[in-house]
Design a protein that fits this description.
With 375 residues, the protein is of the alpha/beta class. Helix content is 38%, strand content 14%. Bound molecules: pyridoxal-5'-phosphate. The site of pyridoxal-5'-phosphate has 15 residues, from α3.
Length: 375
């Protein structure tokens, strides 16, 4: 099988499995225990935090381990102070874990404003400026779209936030961006930034919320006071160790030129075969392509591709149970076209030859389907 649904989740690196295994078999102590074995594990976790911080260009005191990116995003929204009457601005391109957190606040009466996105999949800054004002308390914009791979101009948006709403917090969901398009969070000008382990070779069930030094974000979870009282809950030591190992492995093995070559090759092959590339922003991730074969339902294509040995996605896995796709509709696609969009997402272990073979198989599958439909 050629696996091309890495935006949903990636295979876990061997080094991450080894790191987790070691924590589970030998170093299974609680980080809050005061005897030497517990202290030693606590020291290891702090080492992991420093390692990850170095990969992200931030201070280790600014990183807080969570159970997943969904928790990190919800924390950002739940921690925001909305009184006296404040508003929140999110982009129309957000993942469900941001969008639904905003909807929950809207249902409680909060003024939630949705910034439009353009046909290339990126936020429309001209029509966002006027939404952010003195009363804005939180602005949240996804860094790399999990649907299209479009990269949002986070640093530029940060300047608008600082100018229009000096008291607002600026959050970005960096799940599809961390290490892949950025290794320096400071350059982005964000206050809060979300990361998920399982998109970068670590297991599912570990995430991070970056909280810039000096930002006071109340906890989402109260309890034993772990994470300097800001995120209670016994540390998931195996997965934190696995995440630190994954960051090392990713950074060592990531060949940007190779990923770009694969991206360009696949796009060219799709375009030459009459497919459209959706949300084809100039600034894009090399790991995500949203393509459309008009008239062919992505679900049908996904099954056909699977039978032929290729696993592809159709829109976000997290919106898999819903009909339609909020983000693709927001960039202007009609319902029929939305249903024809499929997502190819690669990782650093994807080879050029696998990418070529898989693209040929997908194109052939659609040709066969169209011939059958005509015949
Ligand atoms: N944000 C984005 C952009 C995602 O792609 C995903 C997962 O698909 C999430 C958040 C949720 O991540 P997690 O599974 O760690 O909760």
């Amino acid at each position: 099988m050629i696996y091309l649904d890495n935006a949903a989740t990636t295979k876990v690196f061997d080094c991450s499995i080894t790191a987790a295994d070691c924590m589970m078999r030998d170093e299974y102590f609680n980080t809050t225990a005061t005897y030497p074995s517990g202290c030693s594990v606590k020291t290891k976790i702090e080492g992991c935090r420093r390692k990850i911080a170095a990969h992200l260009g931030v201070n280790s005191t600014e990183l807080f381990f969570t159970s997943c990116a969904t928790e990190s995003n919800n924390w950002a929204f739940n921690g925001v102070r909305l009184r006296p009457a404040g508003n929140i601005v999110i982009s129309a391109g957000e993942h469900a874990s941001v969008y639904e957190a905003a909807v929950a606040l809207k249902n409680k009466g909060v003024d939630v404003r949705i910034a439009p996105i353009k046909t290339d999949g990126t936020i429309d800054l001209n029509n966002t400026d006027n939404l952010i004002d003195q009363n804005t308390r939180l602005v949240s914009c996804i860094h790399v779209s999990n649907e299209t791979g479009a990269v949002n101009p986070i640093a530029e948006l940060s300047q608008i936030v600082r100018k229009n709403a000096p008291r607002a917090l600026f959050h970005s969901d960096g799940v599809q961006a961390a290490l892949k398009v950025t290794s320096n969070l400071r350059e982005l000008g964000v206050d809060l930034y979300t990361i998920s382990g399982h998109k970068i070779g670590a297991p599912k069930g570990v995430g991070i919320l970056y909280i810039k030094n000096g930002i006071n974000l109340p906890p989402l979870l109260y309890g034993g006071g772990q994470e300097t009282n800001r995120r209670s809950g016994t540390h998931n030591t195996p997965y934190i160790a696995a995440l630190a190992a994954a960051c090392d492995c990713f950074s060592e093995c990531y060949d940007c030129e190779k990923s770009k070559t694969i991206y360009d090759l696949m796009c060219t092959m799709f375009l030459e075969s009459g497919f459209s590339i959706v949300g084809n922003a100039q600034a894009h991730s090399n790991f995500i392509i949203c393509a459309m074969a008009r008239g062919i339902k992505a679900e049908v294509l996904q099954n056909l591709a699977y039978e032929r040995g290729v696993i592809i996605g159709k829109g976000s896995s997290c919106s898999g149970s819903m009909r339609g796709n909020r983000v693709l509709s927001a960039i202007g696609l009609n319902n029929a076209d939305v249903e024809s969009c499929f997502r190819i997402s690669t990782f650093i272990d994807t080879t050029l030859s696998d990418a070529k073979i898989a693209t040929e198989l997908i194109i052939k599958a659609i040709d066969d389907l169209r011939r059958q439909n005509v015949g």
